[in-house]
């Protein structure tokens, strides 16, 4: 097969739409694009010069450009799977391109995904995508590990699991993503850098640990620093400066290798990089004074803590080694070091009863948690929580698997649970709390609060819209 042109597409949950709301709400028609797919685009560009990526998170797809490609690669998360299948069908009907799919959902649900494309690339595809291109060019059988497909006679073929790459120092070329530079001026799209992959823990609902594995793999410090510099330059290179100068380190568990994490932070401190950072973390980093001092000195203004639950019973149910007392100690310690805590929460656990939204909001306000993400229990195919609760799921409309209620909870109705999320958000981002934030917080935090209030309103509007269709609605 002759391969001269390759296009990558990241389907959105909804197709991109130009909207005034893109300026302040995240994830409706606009969100930070996948750097995993952008990294693959960068790697493939080395072999096939005419390579470009589209992301429906930040632009429409230019079909005239895509439909004469030799290969179109679609990378899907669960919430974008249905849209991804729709795009794959469209490409098949309107072009001769070979359609290849990958990403977290494609890997976890490879048999389902294989029905919609020619090949599925499983897991991290930095190495397998080059092998695939070489095999296709040479017209040889695709039998190396890390691929799934439907054979001509309709049988499902899985060539075996593949070891994830040890080295992933490729710095994504952000210019290969169509219109990224223009859209990166939006304050809702943050520069992002991934420094490590994997997490040694095993929370039952976690899909990323199933995708990246339990063993932590890290990038070299030089490559991380270079990536950070390029990300900042790319986002801040514009006539109208971005108001929100904040870079997101996207790792699942940056702190799992303490010595490595400290060496990266020390390198940032010693470098010419002067920026604000945010990072996701388990509570335990909040009990490590030495690490917190380094984070503060490196420019981290907040920790986005995977608090998840506010009752110890929930941690036990989902195999999460945490306790509410330790979490509270960690929150107070982080705040005492001059950083904020953002809270990532899950509702709809087996032990959750009506009133969970109110209790959660009280917890957030009591401990001055600045910014929340409240999601209903995730059921991502391939996780233990999904496998154990398949029969309690309301549907397989994957587009709703982004934090909306998609199951029948044990101790309340789905309708009640969705209302709990709306009520918690309403209480945390109430008018009273908004006025207080405007009067008392520093300007960057005021902006963050206001942006989040708009975003929460937009999310809750969608959740409210779904209420009449949920079991338990009167
Ligand atoms: S600690 Fe976080 S990344 Fe690790 S398994 Fe649990 S949820 Fe996943």
CATH class of the largest domain: Alpha Beta
Strand order of the largest sheet: 2-1-3-4-5-6-7
Number of strands: 15
Globular, elongated, flat, extended or rod-shaped: what is the shape? Answer: globular
| Unreliable parts | none
Label the structural class.
alpha/beta
Task: Tell me the major beta sheet.
Answer: 7 strands, mixed
Question: What is the residue-mean pLDDT, rounded to a whole number?
Answer: 95
Q: Give the CA-CA distance, first to last residue.
A: 58 Å
* Architecture per CATH nomenclature, i.e. the level-2 architecture of the largest domain: Alpha-Beta Horseshoe
Total DSSP helices: 18
Query: What small-molecule ligands were found?
Result: iron/sulfur cluster
Number of domains: 2
Helical percentage: 25-40%
Topology-level CATH name of the largest domain: pyruvate-formate lyase- activating enzyme
Give the strand content: 5-15%
Structure description:
This protein is α/β, with parallel strands linked by helices and 474 residues long. The chain has helices at residues 35-45, 63-66, 81-94, 104-108, 110-114, 128-137, 180-183, 208-212, 221-236, 258-270, 289-298, 312-317, 324-336, 356-366, 384-389, 414-428, 431-440, 443-466; strands at 5-10, 50-55, 71-75, 98-102, 119-121, 147-150, 156-158, 192-193, 196-197, 217-218, 247-249, 277-281, 300-308, 340-347, 372-376. It folds into two domains: 5-158, Rossmann fold, CATH 3.40.50.280; 191-469, pyruvate-formate lyase- activating enzyme (Alpha-Beta Horseshoe). The protein is built from 18 helices and 15 strands. The strands form three sheets. The chain has a seven-stranded mixed β-sheet, with helices on both faces. Strands 8-11-12-13-14-15 form a six-stranded parallel β-sheet. A two-stranded antiparallel ribbon has the order 9-10. The longest helix has 24 residues, at 443-466. It starts with a strand and ends in an 8-residue tail after the last helix. The mean pLDDT is 95. The structure holds iron/sulfur cluster. Residues 199, 201-203, 206, 208-209, 252-253, 282, 306 line the site of iron/sulfur cluster.
């Amino acid at each position: 097969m002759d391969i001269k042109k390759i296009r990558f597409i990241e389907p959105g949950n909804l197709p991109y739409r130009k909207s005034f709301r893109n300026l302040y709400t995240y994830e409706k028609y606009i969100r930070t694009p996948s750097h995993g797919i952008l990294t693959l685009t960068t790697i493939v560009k080395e072999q096939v010069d005419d390579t470009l990526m589209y992301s429906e998170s930040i632009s429409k797809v230019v079909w005239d450009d895509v439909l004469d490609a030799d290969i179109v690669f679609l990378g899907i998360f669960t919430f974008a799977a249905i849209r991804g299948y729709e795009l794959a069908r469209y490409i098949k009907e309107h072009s001769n391109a070979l359609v290849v799919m990958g990403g977290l959902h494609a890997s976890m649900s490879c048999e389902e995904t294989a029905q919609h494309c020619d090949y599925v690339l499983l897991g991290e595809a930095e190495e397998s995508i080059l092998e695939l291109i070489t095999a296709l060019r040479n017209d040889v059988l695709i039998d190396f590990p890390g691929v799934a497909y439907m054979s001509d006679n309709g049988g499902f073929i899985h060539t075996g699991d593949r070891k994830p790459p040890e080295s992933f120092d490729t710095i994504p070329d952000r210019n290969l993503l169509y219109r990224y530079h223009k859209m990166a001026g939006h304050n809702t799209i943050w520069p992002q850098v991934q420094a490590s992959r994997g997490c040694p823990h095993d929370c039952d609902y976690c899909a990323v640990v199933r995708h990246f594995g339990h063993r932590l793999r890290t990038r070299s410090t030089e490559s991380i620093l270079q990536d950070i510099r390029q990300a900042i330059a790319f986002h801040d290179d514009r006539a109208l400066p971005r108001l929100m100068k904040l870079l997101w380190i996207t790792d699942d568990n940056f702190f799992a290798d303490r010595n490595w994490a400290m060496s990266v932070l020390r390198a940032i401190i010693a470098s010419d990089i002067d920026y604000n950072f945010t990072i996701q973390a388990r509570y335990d980093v909040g009990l490590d004074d030495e690490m917190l001092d380094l984070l503060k000195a490196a420019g981290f203004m907040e920790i986005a803590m995977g608090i998840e639950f506010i009752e110890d019973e929930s941690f036990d149910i989902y195999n999460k080694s945490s306790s509410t007392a330790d979490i509270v100690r960690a929150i107070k310690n982080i705040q005492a070091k001059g950083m904020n805590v953002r809270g990532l929460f899950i509702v709809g656990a087996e032990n959750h009863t009506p009133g969970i939204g109110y209790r959660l909001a009280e917890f957030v306000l009591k401990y001055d948690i600045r910014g929340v993400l409240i999601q209903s229990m995730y059921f991502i195919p391939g996780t233990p929580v999904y496998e154990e609760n398949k029969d309690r799921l309301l549907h397989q409309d994957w587009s709703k698997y982004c934090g909306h209620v998609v199951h029948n909870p044990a101790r309340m109705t789905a309708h009640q649970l969705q209302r709990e999320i709306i009520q918690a958000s309403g209480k945390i981002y109430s008018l009273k709390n908004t006025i207080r934030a405007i009067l008392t917080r520093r300007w960057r935090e005021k902006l963050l609060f206001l942006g989040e209030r708009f975003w929460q309103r937009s999310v809750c509007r969608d959740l409210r819209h779904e209420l009449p269709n949920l079991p338990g609605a009167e």
